[in-house]
Write the structure tokens for this entry.
Amino acid sequence: MAGVRVTICGVNTKDLPLLSAKDKKELLTKIKAGDNSAREAFIKGNLRLVLSIVGRFSNSNENMDDLFQIGCIGLCKAAATDKGGNFSTYAYRLIWNQICDA
């Protein structure tokens, strides 16, 4: 099943990088040190989380591409303000709130 192409909101999920827990921890350390390339890699590695949340709004009348972009804003905020712990739990709430507020 690995390598299956699924396109959501114009994003091919096959092209998105997968980050291990070790990779995420290293990238978060670099982000806190001010490394913008690490921040970009971290955000790209977590776009699947945004897509999974946007998928929950598939029955709404909202444009899915707009929701994806709004969710990406929430992901960027989560990456900038992470305080440790489980990132996906923290980011999920910020992404969800960002979409609902919009």
